Amino acid sequence: MPYLYSVAPAARLSLEQLRAAHATCLAALKRERGAEATRTLSAEDEEHVFALTALDATWDRLRGCKALWENAPSDVLLIRELPLLSQQGVLVMDMDMTAVQIEGIDEIARRVGVYEEVAAVTSRAMHGELDFAASLQERVSKLKSAKSATAILNAVKEVMTETPGLDSLLTLTYGKWQRGIASGGFTQLIGVLKERYHLEMVAANTLEIAEDRFTGRVASAIVDATGKLHAVINLMVDTGTPVSQCVVLGDGANDLPMLKAAGLGIAYHAKPKVVAEAPCALNMSDLRAVSLLLKYAPRL
């Protein structure tokens, strides 16, 4: 059964305003696609307000509806099937600008003294303008021979701020689901989250370091869009998790294949290309919006 989920920061909308906006989206769905609302749950917490409605309509009839609410004052997600915490599930996230609020390679480059040239390439790669693997090799090559690699990585870890709501999402799913990071970033940084949240899977690149200097090379096979996709699929297969119980979040163009492969693929504060092509998008809310969906889904 499809569902419509509207969510917004409480500082942006009141629950009454959110309900009204949600009703407008439901009316558009009924008018344009003949979808009927069967039951609705709405609530608020300290940070967000939301409404979740079950729809009487086939998924094929509802696909391609994003234009109906592109000007809505809230985030609106059309969900094919609700993932349930009570069943085996998989949660996979991108690292940079999704799980944490930095681009790791850019912050390393800043401390090496090549920030401007590296950040320009990063931006183009994340917008889908460059081949990711080639662009990563180019950026990493600019770090070659930089001294004190360990100190530089530790300095980046100090500014590696978690995305709001990450703690609540990973705590909520701990012990219930398999959780992982699939990233074009680096294991040396992702290890912080892996240890803190006891993540079951990490698929990422590793910077090659020799005598505490960056060699300018990636020490492993590059994890690009295809590598991320395979990481998600392998985790589902290894755990016997159905697609409907797979949630994936990411912000860059190299996240699109894994977003599209998930039962619930969410572009998180993503680049325009990703928002346009991803199944769902959160542009206003933080990661607590996903926690709310998982927490309240069984009550609908």
What does this structure look like?
The structure is a single chain. The chain is α/β, with parallel strands linked by helices. It has helices spanning 15-33, 59-62, 104-112, 115-126, 132-141, 149-158, 166-173, 187-197, 225-239, 256-261, 272-277, 288-296, and strands at residues 3-9, 36-44, 48-56, 75-79, 90-93, 178-186, 201-205, 207-210, 213-218, 246-250, 264-268, 280-282. The chain has a six-stranded parallel β-sheet. Strands 2-3-1-4 form a four-stranded antiparallel β-sheet, with helices on both faces. Strands 8-9 form a two-stranded antiparallel ribbon. The longest helix has 19 residues, at 15-33. The protein is elongated, with a radius of gyration of 20 Å.
Q: Which word captures the global form?
A: elongated
Structural class: alpha/beta
Read across the widest sheet, the strand sequence of neighbours is 7-6-5-10-11-12
Mean pLDDT: 96
Distance between the termini: 12 Å
Number of helices: 12
| Largest pleated sheet | 6 strands, parallel
User: In terms of per-residue confidence, which ranges show pLDDT below 50 for 5 or more consecutive residues?
Assistant: none
Taking all Cα atoms into account, the compactness measure Rg is 20 Å
Secondary-structure element order, N to C: EHEEHEEHHHHHEHEEEHEHEHEH
Q: What is the number of E strands?
A: 12
Estimate what percentage of residues fall within beta strands. Answer: 15-25%
Helix content: 25-40%
